[in-house]
Design goal:
The protein is α+β, with helices and mostly antiparallel strands. The chain has one helix at 69-83; strands spanning 4-12, 27-37, 40-51, 54-65. The chain has a four-stranded antiparallel sheet, covered by helices on one side. The protein has one helix and four strands, in the order E-E-E-E-H. The relative contact order is 0.27.
Length: 97
């Protein structure tokens, strides 16, 4: 499902190359902030990927149906990992649809 982005994603640090291309086990976390707008929510989502001593963060904002929060979080984490070069086979199975 496509989610309505409210603004472009911000990556910290800026993406240079594919730092997660050869990584298999990445720790991840996310932080949410929501505002209700009728039957939809504005979701501010920050994902954090950790590889040894490096942390990669991504801040995104979406307007989504309330029942799609979990799917949006998972899709955003997968997109963040893929943007940093992680191979699809190495993405944790708990995130896969």
């Amino acid at each position: 499902m496509e989610f309505q982005k409210l603004e472009d994603a911000v990556y910290i640090p800026k993406i240079k190359g594919s730092p997660l291309a050869d990584k298999e086990h990445i720790e991840f976390n996310y932080y949410l902030h929501t505002k209700t707008h009728g039957n939809k929510v504005d979701l501010d989502l920050t994902t954090k990927l950790c590889d040894n001593k490096m942390e990669y963060k991504c801040k995104s904002s979406y307007r989504i149906p309330m029942d799609q929060i979990e799917n949006c979080v998972k899709a955003n984490l997968i997109d963040h990992m893929r943007t940093l070069g992680m191979k699809r086979k190495n993405i944790p199975k708990s995130l896969m649809p």
